[in-house]
Amino acid sequence: MGAKALREALTFAAGEVILFPGQAEEVYRVNHGLVRIHTVDDEGNGLTLRYVKPGGYFGEEALRGLRRRYFAEAVTPTIIEVISPTTLTATEHLALTRHLVEVVKRLYLSLHRLSGKRLKSRIAAELLDLQDSALASYDDAGQTVVHITHDDLAAAVGSVRETVTKVVGELTREGLIDAGYGKIALLDVAKLGTVAGE
User: Fold this and answer.
1) 124-166 residue pLDDT tens
2) Contact, 71 vs 40, CB < 8 A?
3) Rounded distance, CA 117 to CA 60, Å?
4) pTM of the model
5) Counting Cβ atoms within 10 Å, is residue 123 exposed (0-12), middle (13-18) or buried (19+)?
6) Which DSSP symbol is given to 66?
7) How far apart are CA 13 and CA 34, in angstroms?
8) What structural domains does the chain harbor?
9) What is the C-alpha to C-alpha distance for residues 85 and 59, in angstroms, rounded to an integer?
10) β-bridge partners, 40
């Protein structure tokens, strides 16, 4: 994945690591699928920093020649476009700038959730955020199903699996979701929104 080609489309299987921490040289745009940007601490605990949906960018450090401090992983089968920063058009620069503004906005929101919101609110907000991603599908009743494990949900909301499992059980008993193995059906999106906003 060097700088041989100015533009290149690459395909990754679900679970495949796209990028490791290191020197950033290229910018990446998701054409299809879902990419998880995450980091791992010294004790091996993972934390999801953000998800990148189709049309979104990652690897922005390459614009300033900075080192990348995170991993990028394909959550679903994914196609990304590798872009040399020198080939970005004015339109792409504008799209990338808009994307970065959205990333910063979501980062502020995530920090607010982590510091001031209960875990139940953070889980509800994360599920709602993923309902229009490649992790989502529809069941026979037409309800949105988010395909995510309790481990991955815990990494996304800054918690541990055991605690997340308890809260998922609570949301299930309240009739807001229906949790199965590796999937969560969103039964009442409006009430989940209320819980997320608490």
Assistant:
1) 988 998 998 888 888 888 889 999 999 999 888 888 889 999 9
2) yes
3) 29
4) 0.69
5) buried
6) P
7) 11
8) 7-114 (2.60.120.10), 117-196 (1.10.10.10)
9) 10
10) 46
